[in-house]
Amino acid sequence: MFNMIEVVGVSPDSFSNAVKNALKTIHNQGYVPSWFEVVEQRGVVSNNEVREFQVKVKIGVKAGSAPKPASSSVNSKENDTCPTCKKPAGPKGHKCSPNPQAESNCDWCGAQITDARHLCDEKNSGATYICNSCGRAAINPDQVCDPKEIKK
After folding, report:
1. Residues of each domain in the chain carrying CATH 3.30.1660.10
2. 10, exposed or middle or buried, with CB in 10 Å at 0-12, 13-18, 19+?
3. Deepest of 4, 51, 113, 120, by most Cβ within 10 A of its Cβ?
């Protein structure tokens, strides 16, 4: 038996990588994916360039496979640590490697986003900080884990 989960995968490179990112995320949450079906494909265009590929994917997961509870995981020490900067991370992940959250739209460009690290030209134009750990740009220093002010 299988359960079906519908997610949106994203990639700056290709639709294929967007599918792979969706499957990787589901697997990392403790599900055992068995098959997938691409339901929709779309992308984000800014300044006449493709900035992001998005795919809505239905993923068949083995019945009974479910997200790993953080407290009972065999690798709970690993789950409590950011994979990018190795600093402590909570249930929402860490600033430089956030866990997927509910889909929303970008306040700057209006694109549908599934990753808190979404960047667009409009958002980048106001960036005044960069993270020394992961290289993520931000407007406020509290949006990155190791902020360094960008000299303009």
Report:
1. 1-68
2. buried
3. 113
